[in-house]
Amino acid sequence: MMRALWTAASGMTTQQTNVDVIANNLSNVNTTGYKTQTAQFKTLLYQTIQSKTTSANGETKPIGAQVGLGVRNASITTNFRQGPLTSTDINTDFAIDGKAFFALQNLDGETVYTRNGSFNWAIGSEDGGVMLCSSEGFPVLDTNGMTIELGPEYNTSMISIDADGNVCYPDENNNPQPIGMQIGLIQFSNPGGLEKSSGSTYKMTNASGEPIMEIEDPMLQKSKIKQGYLESSNVQTVDEMVNLIVAQRAYEMNSKAIQAADDMLGQANQLRR
Fold it and tell me: CA-to-CA distance for 68 and 4, rounded, in angstroms?
């Protein structure tokens, strides 16, 4: 019965983590570029009560008896499926149609990656030039790993980005022409191995593999950039509410198991009275 108490308690602890993950998903339902997370579980070690043997009469007992010792969280995985694209009509909003990420340079000088394309033009130098930055002020990197900076002669309201990420400016005939800068689009062999950071950004790890620049690998399926759009969260509210009910019921059942084991222990302690 003491084993039952511990096993049920591990179930309650695990389901609490599950509820935490679901609550985080629901709280980020309107976060641009957010990806749904899912708690994964695994069983703990099994205790052998009876091994395969023979009875006193020589009869074979081919099946032993093992009792599980509970459950624990194995991992919290991220689902990187495409979220819906929402029109904003803002020329500094960008959505990726595909598997790629934008590359940003954070305050520590590290390169981080995001699906949140809510960018802005910020003052980049003393001469009045501008730099393409994220909403947190992180510079957006181009295909060469450099910041995207333009001189004061450019009017930011006339700058456009094509589907391949080329920065364009209208010529004398008012036709957008590339000016030699291209937003970098990065893919990973295992995006699930990325380390989560703040502001919907991710960091590279050994599990994710090295970043792969799309234009440098002809074998990759190329992503497209849509200007004036943002990728919404891929959280499915109905699914999360169902998962929340399931987790709550599992938590209640484990608490009932603890109560039953406690009642049985109480009855055993009263046998001498």
Answer: 10
Give 99's Cβ-side CA count (13 Å radius). 14
Q: Identify whether residues 104 and 227 lie together within a single domain.
A: yes
Provide the token pair at 267: 């009855």
Domain hosting 117: range is 85-231
Residue in the block written with tokens 């222990």: 265
Closest CA to 21 of 71, 76, 75: 76
Tell me, yes or no, whether 68 and 89 share the same domain: no
Q: Please give the DSSP secondary-structure letter assigned to residue 55.
A: -
Which segments within 139-219 are labelled E, that is strand?
149-150, 160-161, 166-170, 176-182, 185-187, 195-196, 201-203, 212-213
Whole-prediction pTM: 0.83
Give yes or no: residues 18 and 41 share one domain. Answer: yes
- pLDDT tens for the chain, 273 residues: list them: 578 888 889 999 999 999 999 999 999 999 999 999 999 999 888 877 777 666 666 677 777 777 888 899 999 999 999 999 999 989 999 999 999 999 999 988 899 999 999 999 988 666 668 899 998 889 999 999 999 998 888 888 899 999 999 999 998 888 889 999 999 999 999 999 999 988 789 999 999 999 999 999 888 899 999 999 999 999 999 999 999 999 999 999 999 998 888 888 888 878 766
In a shared domain, residues 225 and 102: yes
